[in-house]
Specification:
Layout: H1 19-26, E1 43-48, H2 57-66, E2 70-75, H3 82-85, H4 87-99
Length: 101
Amino acid sequence: MRADAFKGERYQITHEKDGHLNLMRNAVFADWDFPWHDLEIPTLVMTGFHDRVFFVNQDVLELSALIPNMKKIDFENAGHMIPMEQPKQFTDELLNFLSTL
């Protein structure tokens, strides 16, 4: 993540009922055994090389190989919060992908 990504932002404690807290708590119980090869829709996968939350290169490569009709974009200077860390590049890449649909 960019060193200045949170400058000027005041830290707020996550509330017990916040959805993203539930997502983080329950992610370990997710069933990732999904028939990825059956996806019939264009799929965009964006990864940030500095992601310390989900990015495991071997996992991304294996998953990418399973998804047909998939485009992968790597952000070398971003972490987990790509839209916040690289907003222009993220938006440009997303709009470019959407224009192909």
